[in-house]
Design a protein that fits this description.
With 540 residues, this protein is of the alpha/beta class. The protein has a domain of 285 residues: 3-Layer(bba) Sandwich (FAD/NAD(P)-binding domain). Helix content is 30%, strand content 17%. The longest helix has 24 residues. The protein is globular, with a radius of gyration of 24 Å.
């Protein structure tokens, strides 16, 4: 008998070693994005035992990986933990020792044209900063809240979620760790946890007819005069030979991704730009076509340098147009290959703009000033670790945010606001398409908006699909609405709101659909979330 017991105990020990199980948490947040950080902090502050599962070795997502010229259209609608983060940024840069090669006054003057100073002194908020500084502050906030963090643990893409009667019992990571929790939050950019939990979602673009949105579907953004072919007669790489549908029809294509690289013009902190080993100038023929078509000669007409502290930049518009389509539902190997292609494109485009003799000399001379900063992304060759996934999956939840909500219509449908957005509806180009002796730019949107509310019902799945999951990033929205909502400060606000709801659901032992939503809204207001906007009211 003793031998049988011993053998059973040994077998159990082996099973435990081969598939380690973390203790049960009240809340498990999957995804180390800024949204995931805020969700974790809020749930922990409310007394929940919280685990933050990061897919890589960092926290903060894009907000600590190059996108540090924060897309805030109205700072007055950013409150709660997001506001606290930006206040800490403000305080950090008040210290003289935070400035290494310029003064605070010099920097603030340099950034006025791009970010309207990037700060608000009355609220003591600053939303332009260095990536490394942002990540250190987020780590401090997580530690202060008592959040446990599990790094380098992406979810298994096959059988990664254990479900029972529409409820997530546990998730399993690629490194074999199984995590149990009462409530889960999927704060990843891809929505892998959501998808494996059996929650309905979409990718790509709805047709105009789906929700009656005038900006939906395939769109002609404009034409570029010039051939779609290289001198050898081949089509320019990543250029579509024909339009793939009628204007206004839906499809599965996503807007362009990029890396928001950080550059510096400080020679004491600079690594020179390098020519990629696989450099192919043909990849940048469309960049050249646009330069020639527009007759532009300044570098800012091609890429956007927004000044960051200590003579660095947030560099935008290194968009790899047409390169993102297979990313949202790709496996990890596919996604890595796509991310590597985007890195090659970004590094190659910077080299192209600085060295190709077909590029105007003024552009080449300006590009020659810049290089990689020695003190950023030191574990990744001074290159950002997070690809800018502007859009992947979008949940089909209790309520779908659409263009009508962003335009201030159907306000009566927003019964329990949990955050606000204010950025323009902004979709980067989807494709270049051959059109006779011209090239169509397909898919762009840029339409200003006024601040609007986001309803809690857009953050929860349908009750019959999953009862203990919240989704603040891949939330329930049409492509058009998502093009405005998709900004990091909004993700942060919605992350906090999901953290609040998750802690409430765990404590009350009810589904995320059945929590007291009036109490949720009241708690959010008490914690500093801004849920209404009045143009005549100045928030301090």
């Amino acid at each position: 008998m003793r031998r049988v017991v011993f053998l059973l105990m040994s077998l159990w020990a082996v099973l435990q070693i081969s598939a380690p199980v973390f203790k049960t948490y009240d809340v498990c947040v999957y995804g180390g994005s800024a949204s995931g950080v805020c969700a974790s902090i809020e749930a922990a502050r409310m007394g929940a035992r919280v685990l933050l599962v990061c897919q890589d070795g960092h926290v903060g997502g894009l907000a600590t990986s190059g996108l540090t010229a924060t897309d805030i259209n109205k700072h007055s609608v950013v409150g709660g933990i997001a506001e606290e983060f930006y206040k800490r940024i403000y305080s950090y840069y008040l210290a003289e020792e935070s400035w290494h090669n310029q003064s605070r006054e010099q920097f603030m003057e340099s950034t006025k044209k791009r970010t309207f100073s990037g700060k608000n002194d009355s609220r003591r908020m600053q939303w332009v900063y260095e990536s490394g500084v942002g990540e250190r502050i987020m780590k401090d906030m997580l530690e202060e809240a008592g959040v446990e963090i599990l790094y380098n643990s992406p979810i298994e893409l096959v059988d990664g979620v254990e479900l029972k009667k529409g409820k997530i019992k546990s998730i399993c990571t690629l490194n074999g760790i199984r995590i149990r929790a009462k409530v889960f939050v999927d704060a990843s950019y891809e929505g892998d946890l959501m998808a494996q939990a059996g929650v309905s979602y979409v990718t790509g673009r709805e047709a105009v007819s789906t929700y009656g949105e005038t900006l939906a579907g395939i769109r002609n953004h404009g034409m570029i005069k010039g051939s779609a072919f290289l001198e050898n007669g081949q089509l320019i790489p990543r250029l579509a030979p024909t339009l793939y549908g009628e204007i206004g029809e839906g499809d599965k294509r996503t807007q362009a991704y990029c890396y928001r690289v950080t550059l510096t013009d400080d020679p004491d902190n600079m690594i020179p730009l390098r020519k990629p080993e696989e450099y192919d100038p043909a990849m940048f023929e469309m960049v050249l076509r646009r330069i020639e078509s527009d007759g532009k000669s300044e570098l800012k007409d091609v890429i956007t340098f927004t000044p960051m502290p200590n003579r660095k930049t947030d560099t935008n518009h290194l968009d790899y147009i047409g390169g993102s389509f297979d990313y949202p539902e790709g496996d990890y190997q596919t996604r890595k290959e796509i991310a590597d292609e985007h890195r090659l494109y970004a590094e190659g485009m910077l080299w192209f703009l600085g060295h190709d003799e077909r590029v105007p000399e003024t552009m080449r001379q300006e590009m020659a000033r810049w290089g990689w900063p020695k003190d950023e992304f030191m574990d990744n060759g001074s290159f950002p670790h997070q690809l800018y996934i502007r859009e992947a999956r979008r949940m089909l939840g209790e309520y779908v945010m659409t263009q009508h909500n962003i335009e201030g219509k159907r306000n009566e449908e927003i019964t329990h606001p949990v955050g606000m957005g204010s950025y323009p509806m902004d979709c980067h180009f989807v494709s270049y398409v051959a059109q006779g002796d011209s090239i169509m730019i397909e898919g762009g949107i840029f339409v200003p908006t006024k601040p609007y509310q986001i309803d809690y019902a857009a953050l929860v799945p349908r009750a019959e699909e999953c009862s203990n999951l919240l989704v603040p990033v891949c939330l329930s929205a049409s492509h058009v609405a998502y093009s405005s909502i998709r900004m990091e400060p909004v993700y942060m606000v919605l992350g906090q709101s999901c953290g609040t709801a998750a802690a409430m659901a765990a404590k009350s032992k009810c589904s995320v659909q059945k929590i007291d939503r009036d109490s949720l809204v009241a708690r959010l207001r008490a914690d500093g979330q801004i849920l209404e906007y009045n143009v005549n009211t100045k928030i301090k």
